[in-house]
Specification:
It is built from 15 helices and no strands. With 271 residues, the chain is mainly alpha-helical. The chain has 2 domains: 94 residues, no CATH class; 159 residues, no CATH class.
Length: 271
């Protein structure tokens, strides 16, 4: 079960770094391009209004205020703008280019505090539980499924929390602070704790365990219903884990691709 758990956690990377809120930011960036105001041919408020209407949001609503505030915070953050080519306009390209977006999100998520990393995962788990149907809209790609969630469906509090975390992610990537990695032994033990958490989440049901393992072995053959279910099971199991093992799993999963080998699997021994 340990290897199966590690396999499925790896499959969650796309889900974690490409949620619907990221798509909203991409949409917003594509509309605004975040240039200096004087260079805009269309008044900023008109662009905002069009974007909010397309999202089904009242332009003078609390959600609209949150998005505006986030854009302004990014626009005037000297650290973020100093490391992104093109300054403010370059920020928009982070969300428009999948490769750059994945790199920045992975780097920033790995540099969040353990508490913020947990908040991010809990938020996405809540979106998946409350806003996504059991078959994930017929998608086996969890990132694509989350892209179907709209700002209109999200609560004001969730929108506020997400954009606060997104700012911290961009800021963390910009600052490139050191990442405290678990040792191979710590990560191996965390894998065992995850396996235990998965069994608890599955309530020891033999058919569910077999269903979960079948998905992890052959995810490309899974139905949307199975992929959606297995993702929910894994997220709930991770959230239920104790720290620091929970954060070791999250950190290893969210590390930028070029740093994945910095935490070898190690030898998983019984606790």
């Amino acid at each position: 079960m340990t290897k199966v758990a590690a396999c499925l956690v790896a499959l969650l990377i796309a889900f974690v770094i490409t949620p619907r809120a990221g798509a909203i930011a991409r949409h917003e960036a594509g509309k605004l391009q975040l240039p200096a105001y004087p260079t805009l041919q269309t008044p900023v408020e008109q662009i905002y209004k069009q974007m909010f209407i397309e999202q089904g949001i009242e332009p003078d609503s609390r959600k609209a205020t949150i998005v505006r505030a986030w854009v302004e915070k990014i626009r005037h953050d000297p650290v973020i703008l100093s490391v992104i080519p093109g300054g403010a306009q370059g920020v928009s390209q982070v969300f428009l280019d999948p490769r750059i977006r994945e790199s920045v999100m992975s780097s920033g998520l790995a540099r969040l505090s353990a508490a913020d990393r947990l908040s991010y995962i809990q938020l996405l788990t809540r979106f998946l539980d409350e806003l996504v149907p059991v078959n994930c809209y017929g998608e086996v790609d969890m990132g694509a499924a989350m892209n179907r969630v709209t700002l209109r469906e999200m609560s004001d509090a969730d929108v506020q929390q997400y954009f606060e975390l997104l700012y911290k992610i961009l800021s963390g990537d910009a600052r490139k602070s050191p990442i405290a990695l678990p040792t191979p032994q710590q990560y191996a033990f965390a894998q065992l704790r995850l396996s235990r958490a998965l069994l608890i989440e599955l309530d020891g049901n033999e058919s569910d365990v077999e269903r979960y393992e079948a998905f992890a072995r052959n995810p490309s053959l899974a139905t949307p219903l199975d992929a959606c279910w297995a993702t929910r099971v894994t997220l709930h199991a991770i959230v239920a884990m104790p720290d620091p093992e929970r954060d070791f799993i999250l950190l290893r999963t969210l590390l930028p691709g070029d740093r994945q080998t910095e935490i070898p699997a190690g030898e998983a021994t019984a606790p």
